[in-house]
């Protein structure tokens, strides 16, 4: 068996580590690129959302490199995600690939469902305690990746030399993946945080605080969002992303089941605007915006793929949220036609607007009586 799977943020780290540990050959597809996108676009209906195309491109690259088993995610849902896996499988078979697809139903069984899925792939000769130990260790690796990434978001707008934080971040996945024991993971954690904390910072940096939210996959995947986090960081913005894989795991694998999830707070905040779940992350986009305003954020960057059903609903409700909460929101609709230069121009204008608002608010708070139209 040679396993492959599509990319989803840092998800490849615990998966590859798990298969390496058990001696199962695993092909991580190359990082998503223009080549991945054109492969996906070529074999997808034009109207389907961008994540479908990118995931298909990843699978094609993995199969071309010799994989014979594809892991995918599926299950019920109100948007297209529910039937992605079946459509991917059919499309790949129509292209003539011979493989087996193993689908993880993310809405069924919580942590037990995940353990069953992993046992199906690793083999039923593995004991349950061993599988549960592997799941726990994989979640710890993911947790480390997410805390490193949060730290990267904090440091990037403060770094003295542009690119020093990204340079360390680029190696984090491989180094965490190579740690196969709790002791090795602890060591790599200390090393990576040490390297990040050794980066010289600007002494008086005062970054804008911006919420980064929207469709889960778009927010997670740096190729799809055209390195938006990096671009914002280089322009003096500290971003606070709502979507992390471990948050998703906490919600779906643990907390949702026992009613302790952060999503309850988010749903409450969104309830004046959206009273029922329309699937995807629409509820979270609206609720997090309201919560971020209360936390004193300077703005929101909202990303969504063209034709994304839940986020179109959120996008249409945003003007009311913006008006009620006086919160600047920039929505970026992404698809294969989007060019980076156009996106960067919009980002720069948005950062400029937030900086001016912040300056005006500061001066007003000091009683200087400066109007919105005043020159800085
Ligand atoms: S949330 Fe939107 S982009 Fe994501 S799978 Fe559903 S329709 Fe597609």
Provide structural commentary.
The protein has 376 residues and is of the alpha/beta class. It has helices at 12-21, 34-42, 50-64, 81-94, 110-122, 128-155, 164-177, 182-197, 216-220, 228-234, 245-258, 263-270, 282-294, 309-325, 340-365; strands spanning 2-4, 25-27, 69-74, 100-105, 208-214, 237-241, 299-305, 329-334. Helix 6 (128-155) packs antiparallel against helix 7 and helix 13 (282-294) runs parallel beside helix 14. The longest helix has 28 residues, at 128-155. The chain is globular, with a radius of gyration of 21 Å. The model is unreliable at 370-376 (pLDDT under 50). The site of iron/sulfur cluster has 13 residues, from helix 14.
General form? globular
The total of helices stands at 15
Cofactors, ions and other ligands in the entry? iron/sulfur cluster
The CATH topology of the largest domain is: Rossmann fold
Q: Return the domain count.
A: 3
- Uncertain spans, ≥5 residues at pLDDT below 50? 370-376
Distance between the termini: 63 Å
How does the helix and strand content classify structurally? alpha/beta
Task: Name the features.
about 375 residues, alpha/beta, Rossmann fold, four-stranded parallel beta sheet
Secondary-structure map with pairings?
Layout (H helix, E strand, L loop, with lengths): L1 E3 L7 H10 L3 E3 L6 H9 L7 H15 L4 E6 L6 H14 L5 E6 L4 H13 L5 H28 L8 H14 L4 H16 L10 E7 L1 H5 L7 H7 L2 E5 L3 H14 L4 H8 L11 H13 L4 E7 L3 H17 L3 E6 L5 H26 L11
Parallel strand pairs: 1-2, 1-3, 3-4, 5-6, 5-7, 7-8
The structure holds iron/sulfur cluster.
